[in-house]
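Async update (no meeting this week)

Hi team, since we skipped the sync, here's where things stand on the single-chain job. The sequence we agreed to prioritize is pasted below, unchanged from the tracker. I ran it this morning and attached the output directly underneath so nobody has to dig for it. Comments welcome in thread, and please keep replies under the output.
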Amino acid sequence: MDSARDEGSVREELHTIRRILIGMLATMWVLELVDFLIGGRLDALGITPRSVQGLFGILVAPLLHGGGGHLISNTFGLVVLGALVLMWGRREFFAVSAASVVVGGLGTWLIAAPGTTHIGASGMIFGYFGYLLARGFYERRVGSLLLTAVVALCFGGMIGGVVPGLAGPGISWECHLFGALGGLLVARRFRKAR
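Output:
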């Protein structure tokens, strides 16, 4: 009886993970379609460094993308890394998401070049990446260390995305760097709560 209950609870948790990720992606894809239909005008709502409008952009930039290709490239990382964080719990997932958006957005708003606009979910994805790497370091349990090793092995190439000049032209290394920092901060905070 207990194994059936455990199996049902695991199935329900996986269903919840799927719903959360599908909801996030559906919102991004709908906004991208609207943006396409109105000629790309939503992209101007992103993070514009040191402007008042740019502060609002901190909240909406992760939902906006510079075309279908940009959104497709972020979808894989969001699904895989987001699902891994969600497997640790919804509370941690929402904390990492919020911290990577706020820390990533504020850091970008403060130091990015003036007159630029930063959009996309990659800051959040880097937050998940940073969190998953740091979790193994802070927790030091076999399962967490194995997950950290797998994430580092499979996604270690992302590290170049936080380095000016290595991220590539038109890619916001600032958002990547500060998004990852947001994830690291949450891992440190949850370390104390464990």
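Quick observations from my side:
The CA atoms of residues 129 and 155 lie 8 Å apart.
The two ends are 30 Å apart (CA to CA).
Reply here if anything looks off.
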